[in-house]
Amino acid sequence: MAENDFSLKETCPKIGGGRSTPGGEMQTSSFDLVERMTFLYIRVVKARALPSNDSFIEVTIGSYKGRTKNNTNPNPEFHEVFAFNKDRLQGNVLDVAVKANQEVIIGKCKFEVAEIPTRVPPDSPLAPQWYRLEDINGNRFGGEVMLSVWMGTQADEVFPEAWHSDCVTVNGDNAVIARSKVYLSPRLWYLRVNIIEAQDLVPLQGNRTNPEILVKGFLGNIVVRSRVSQTRTMSPVWNEDMMFVAVEPFEDSLILSLECKLGQNEECLGKCEVKLSQVERRVMPDPVPAMWYNLERVVDSVVQGFAGRIHLRVSLDGGYHVLDESIQYSSDYRASAKILWTPAIGVLELGVISASGLMPMKSRDGRGTTDAYCVAKYGQKWVRTRTIVDTFSPKWNEQYTWEVYDPYTVITIGVFDNMHLLVPGNTNGPRDSRIGKIRIRLSTLETERIYTHSYPLIVLKPDGVKKMGEIQLAVRFSCTSTIDMLQKYSEPLLPMMHYLTPLSIYQLDSLRHQATHILCMNLGRTEPPLGRDVVEYMLDFGSNIWSIRRGRANFERLVTFFTAFLDAWVWFDSVCKWKSPVTTILAHFIFLFIVFLPKYCVTSLLLYCFVIGFYRYRLRPRHPPHMDIKLSKADSALPDELDEEFDGFPSGKSADLVKKRYDRLRGIAGRMMMVLGDLATQGERVKNLLSWRDPRATFLFSMFCLVACGVIFLISMKLLMTLVAFYVMRHPRLRVFDIPSVPQNFFRRLPSRADSML
C-alpha cells in the first residue's frame, strides 16, 4: 500500500450480500455485509463439588488461553463465554481445566475440535451440560463443570459479550474495555427560561444606589449568565431568554441566583429552584404561563428566609432539534419531542470488515503496536467494535443497522487506538489515539446497492497530513417507501420551531457546547465507556476555531463556484470580439430566437436541462465521496499554519508568536475589509442614482430614463433588444477602441459614502 495514496478503492470482499441462488433469488441474512467468520465458543456456566474454595477455569487450545475470574465458592458460578477464531486454531483438542492456588490443576476435561457441533442462528442456543472432571492422573473425583461448546459465527448472540482470542493479552476486569457495544445517547431538549422581572429584593447593603443586578442559571455543570438589568433599581427588569440543554428523564433542577455586582465581585441576593420534572413541555411556539417564584437567601448552604421573588416563563421546547453535530454533516434532524417524529423511510446497514496498513500508535515491549477499534455514529445510536489487539491489519467483520428518517444525513465512522489497555482497570487514563475518520452522506448512495470500498484513514497533525492506513467498509441504504423519501426533499430540513422562533448563531454555538458536554458525560458512564476524546472527535467538536487552511479551502470552493459565471462571461466576450465567427453568428441566431419566440425559451431551457441530466446519468459517480486532502488544502498547509490550527483556545504560545500570527491575521482581515468596502461602494452607487448626491449625475440619469421611456414607447421592444444585442456583439472592425463603455464610465463616477469614512 502506497503511503501517499489517498484515493478511494473499490474492493470485492467475500460477503453474503448480493449472492444469488440458482433460482435467481437473492440470499440475505442479518450479517450479509461482512465476511463470514467461524468461532469456537465455550460458555462456562458453573461448577460444583470442587475441593477448593478459591478456583477459576482456564480454557486452552494450542497456544491460546482464556481464564475466568476467581471465585471463592466451592460451587462457583462464572457465566462467561470464550470465542476462539477458527482460522487461528493451533490445536485439535480443547482443554477445560479448573485451577486453584495459583495454577494448581484441580480437574479438567477435553473436547475434540472435530466433534464439536455447529450452530447458526436463528437456531436456539445450545443447552449447557454437566461434564465430570478428571484429576491429573485421569481419575474422576466427583467434581463437575457445566458448559456448552459449539462452532458459530459473529451472528451469534453471545458474540459481543465473549472474550475473544484476538484479545489474548486482555484478561480479567479489563476485558470489558475490548468488547463491542451499542450505545444510545439520551434525548436532549432545549430548556428556555424567560426572565421577566424581579421584585421585593432586599439589598445586603442598605445604602446601595444604582445596583447592577444579573441572573446566573445553574443546570448541572452548566452556568449561563444574563445581562445586567438596565433599570438599576431593586425591582430589575430583563425580559431576556436563557437557554440550556436538558437531558431526559429530567431528574435535575434548575438553580437561579440573583447576583449584585460589587466591583470585581458578586454577592448573592437570593436563589430559587425549578424542578425540570414539573416544567411544562411544548412543541409549538405558543407561550407558556408566566409564574412567580420565591427567592431564598442562602448563606453557607443555610436558608435564612425570604429574599424576594422573580417572574419567570420556563418551558422545555421539544419542537427543536438539539444540534450536537455540525449542521453540515448532521446524522439526525428530528425534533426532541417524539410526537413530532415521522415514520422511518429506510434502513442503513454498515459492515465494518477490516483495516490494513495501520501505523504503530504506541510502544509495547520495545516494539510498535496498535490495538484498533472502530466507532460509528448515526442519529442517537453509537456502535463500537471489539478491540483487535496487537495487529496492523485487524479484521472485525461486524455489522450494524440504523433506521433512516432523512436521506440528507451523514454517518460518521472513526478508528481509534485503545490506549486504556496499557493501564489495566483505569478507564480515566490516557486518551485514545485517533487513527482516522470518514463520513458518508446517505443522499449520495443509490438505494439497495452494496458499496464495498477501502477508505483512506487520514489525520491532520501539526507536522502535516498523514495516511494512517485504510478501512474496508460495506454500506447499503435500503428504502422502505420511495414516495416518502422523495417527499423529504420538499420538507424543511429542521423542525418548524427553528423557523417560527429561530435561535441566534451565538445561542446555537453555546447550546452545541452544552450538548457535547452532556453526551461526553453520559457516554463516559457506560461500560465500556466512550471517552471524551472519542465523542468530541466524532462530533467534530471545535471545528469552528479559526484556521487559515480551512479558510483558504472555503475561499477556493467559492471561487470554483463563481468560475462557471466567469467562464460564461469570457465566452460571451469572445463572441463579441468575433474570435470564432461561426460561434458569433450562431449566437446571433439564438438571440433572435429568444426575442421573437419568447414563449419557447423557457420550455427549451427546461428540455435542455432534462436531456443533459439524463445524458449525465451514465457518468454519475460510482462511489461515495471521501476525505479530499487537496480540497481541504491539507497537502499545501505550511507548518506554522498547522501549528496555529492545533493551538488551544485561548492560545498557549509565546507572546511573540501570538503577535506574529495576529499581524498575519490583520493582513488577511485587511484584504477582506477592502473587498467588503468595494462591494458596499457599488451598492451605494446604485442607491445614489436618484439621491441627488451628485446633482449632475442624477440629472443625466433622470433625463436618460425619460428619453428611454419615449423610445421604448415608440419602438417595438423586440426591435430595440435586437439592436442593442447586435450593437454589443458588433464586429471588431466597427469598434473604435477596446475601452470601458459609457454606462461603465458613468457608474464609476457616481458618489458613495466611502468619502465619509475615517
TrEMBL record:
It comes from the Eukaryota. Residues 173-293, 323-455 form the C2 domain. Keywords: Calcium, Membrane, Metal-binding, Repeat, Transmembrane, Transmembrane helix. Residues 1-27 are annotated as: Disordered. Residues 1-12 have a biased composition (Basic and acidic residues). One of its GO terms (molecular function) is metal ion binding. Its main location: membrane. GO terms for cellular component: membrane. It holds the Pfam family C2. InterPro entries: C2_dom, C2_domain_sf, C2B_MCTP_PRT_plant, C2C_MCTP_PRT_plant, C2D_MCTP_PRT_plant, MCTP_C, QUIRKY-like. It is found in: Membrane. It is a multi-pass membrane protein. PROSITE patterns: C2 (PS50004). The chain crosses the membrane at residues 584-617, 699-728. Belongs to the MCTP family. PANTHER family: C2 DOMAIN-CONTAINING PROTEIN-RELATED, PHOSPHORIBOSYLANTHRANILATE TRANSFERASE ISOFORM 1. This is C2 domain-containing protein. It comes from Brassica campestris (Field mustard).
